[in-house]
Amino acid sequence: MITTVTQRTRHQPVRFAQFDLVRPEREDSGPVFRRNDIARLELLCDLSQDLDLDETSLGVVISLIDQLHAARQQLAIMARAINALPSDLRRQIDAALKPG
């Protein structure tokens, strides 16, 4: 896994796991990092190095990113539910959501 993360330091994934910024699955052979864990590790490395953020600041930033992703997922669910409604109800919702 460490070789997959393309950033400079090898100790960062361990530090990020210690600070609960990434949560690999635990197996008998040790931690197992999934594809989304590796993407998260690379983002954390970028933020840490490019913006010089410590683990506490990274925790705040990654929490906000997680909240944004959750909101986008909820919005997608809501959009699918609205699209399943009859067209007259969709038009009413569309009109109600327009500004002004």
Question: How would you sum up this structure, described in words?
Answer:
With 100 residues, this protein is mainly α. It has one domain (12-97): Multidrug-efflux Transporter Regulator, Chain: A, Domain 2 (Orthogonal Bundle), CATH 1.10.1660. It is built from four helices and two strands; from the N terminus they run αββααα. The model has no long low-confidence stretch (mean pLDDT 88). The chain is 63% helix and 6% strand. The longest helix has 29 residues, at 55-83.
Give the secondary structure arrangement, pairings included.
Elements: H1 12-18, E1 25-27, E2 30-32, H2 35-50, H3 55-83, H4 87-97
Antiparallel strand pairs: 1-2
Distance between the termini: 52 Å
CATH class: Mainly Alpha
Strand order of the largest sheet: 1-2
CATH topology term: Multidrug-efflux Transporter Regulator, Chain: A, Domain 2
Order of helices and strands: HEEHHH
Secondary structure: helix percent: 55-70%
The unreliable regions are none
**What is the number of strand segments?**
2
Strand content: 5-15%
Supply database-style keywords:
single chain; 100 residues; 2 strands; elongated
Short description:
The protein has 100 residues and is mainly alpha-helical. It is built from four helices and two strands; from the N terminus they run αββααα. The mean pLDDT is 88.
